[in-house]
Design a protein that fits this description.
Shape: globular
Oligomer: single chain
Bound molecules: uridine-diphosphate-N-acetylglucosamine
Largest sheet: 4 strands, mixed
Radius of gyration: 22 Å
């Protein structure tokens, strides 16, 4: 098992380049198996979740040619099997996209029930409702979801909540169904649009992605495509808030500033300076005074993303005054608060609300990442804290952040990744940074 050791207190300075969006890539890799022709996907993030999906599709017969760290060619003409039960696939949430993709193309899919970060109950009833509306029979047996159809026929589907996963999954299945499908109350997140754009580049006919009504005309066949994945909104947002929390000045490249507006707006409200360029954003918090408080409620896009909630709460815990953060998407997303309290944060959680009394500083401690985004928030806290912080269970963080410690170190952070058993490496680091 590995851990990060951080010596906090150094403001982040410099430039960082953001990778491709993990959550878009997960949908796009599933979509890639829906054609017999070769697809080339660029700007693929090299993170754990992505590598698990590549392994899973290769296990069922897809030819996966990893050209470089961030590019892959996939040819799925030899897929023999529509059953996916690869051990690691159970651990990732987006395994469910293989269900929509296999059902759409082969009218048959057996996929193990999804896992993913433990941030609350994560049912998939809306996905199943959508598949059934298209004519599939869906059952759960021995931990597997089994979806099968003689024919898939387009339908009118109203989602009870604007679920990202259900919107993408139903889009995958419907784009090779007969006739027209309309998804109402669809999710509008940038990665929903990216998956739809990729499918359209393969010959699908999807209109309205990015609005709450998506219209799909089924096609018989999808074809080859070359596609570059959009930048990761959450990785970018994490660096924005880390720059602010460490009182730094960071220019973040390869971003779409529009996708970051909810985060930018909160930073500006708190008194931080944010400069937007065409494909970069600069966060400057070097004025020397503490940022102010604000209130945040997580919402579906274009609202404030739930995947940035732990990071903004961490920043607010260092800001002046009392802030209220309401989590309205997942009910169990404040598990990191106990860890943050060990570093000196003053946060009281009541139901889905955190009441945060800002403190002047955090002090380093040994903390444990409870999930992916909360893990990134604890690293941010460690970077801002006085003294040394150890963050363990970083396997969660590595599911979604590529070379996190290297990117932070290039910005001036004193941070290393070591094996938890490697006491010598820890000592060497402590001696080096003092
Ligand atoms: C995706 C993202 C995740 C992000 C979340 C919200 C991926 C792989 N993961 O997760 O990082 O935090 O969107 O932006 O893209 N729900 C149901 N029934 C369903 C589906 C969802 O009740 O069938 C509920 C969930 O419990 C949750 C809410 O709807 O409360 C939103 O979930 P959803 O948008 O589906 O999130 P995920 O696709 O799981």
């Amino acid at each position: 098992m590995e851990q990060y050791i951080i010596k906090g207190g150094t403001p982040l300075h410099g430039e960082v380049v953001i990778g491709g969006a993990k959550n878009a890539a997960l949908g796009i890799l599933a979509a890639a198996i829906m054609t017999d022709e070769t697809v080339t996907i660029e700007n693929l993030p090299n993170v754990w979740d992505i590598n698990v999906v590549l392994q899973a599709i290769s296990d069922i017969g897809a030819y996966v040619n990893r050209i470089g760290k961030h590019e892959v060619k996939i040819n799925s003409s030899k897929i023999q099997n529509s059953a996916i039960d690869y051990e690691n696939i159970r651990k990732i949430r987006a395994s469910y996209y293989l269900l929509g993709a296999l059902l759409g193309k082969y009218k048959k899919a057996h996929v193990t029930l999804p896992g993913g970060c433990n941030i609350g109950s994560r049912p998939i009833d809306q996905h199943i409702k959508g598949f059934e509306a298209l004519g599939a029979e869906v059952k759960i047996e021995h931990g597997m979801i089994i979806a099968e159809a003689e024919r898939l026929i387009g339908n009118h589907i109203y989602l009870d909540m604007a679920s990202v996963g259900a919107t993408i999954n139903i889009t995958l299945a419907a784009c090779m169904a007969e006739g027209k499908t309309i998804i109402e109350n669809a999710a509008k997140e940038p990665h929903v649009v990216d998956v739809a754009n990729f499918l359209n580049s393969m010959g699908a006919n999807i209109k309205g992605a990015g609005t709450d009504v998506i219209r799909i005309k089924g096609v018989n066949k999808l074809h080859a495509s070359e596609y570059s994945i959009i930048p990761d909104q959450i990785e970018a947002g994490t660096f924005m808030l880390a720059a602010a929390a460490t009182k730094g000045d960071v220019l973040i490249h390869a971003v779409i500033p529009k996708h970051l507006e909810a985060i930018t707006a909160k930073l500006v409200e708190m008194g931080c300076y944010v400069e937007e360029f065409d494909d970069a954003i600069r966060v400057i918090n070097t004025q020397g005074k503490r940022l102010g408080h604000t209130h945040v409620k997580t919402l579906t896009y274009p609202g404030f993303p739930t995947d940035m909630q732990p990071q903004i709460s961490t920043l607010l815990a260092l800001s002046e005054g009392t802030s209220v953060v309401t989590e309205s998407i997942f009910e169990n997303r404040f598990k990191y608060v106990d860890e943050l309290s060990r570093m000196g944060a003053k946060i009281k959680v009541e139901g889905n609300t955190a009441i945060i009394d800002g403190v002047e500083k955090f002090t380093g401690a040994v903390v444990s990442a409870p999930d992916l985004r909360a893990g990134a928030a604890l690293v941010t806290a460690g970077l801002a804290a006085e003294g040394f912080t150890t963050v363990d269970h970083i396997e969660y963080i590595e599911r979604g952040y590529e070379e996190f410690e290297k990117k932070m170190s290039r910005l001036g952070a004193s941070m290393i990744k070591t094996d938890v058993e490697d006491e010598k490496a820890v000592q060497r680091f402590r001696l080096k940074v003092g």
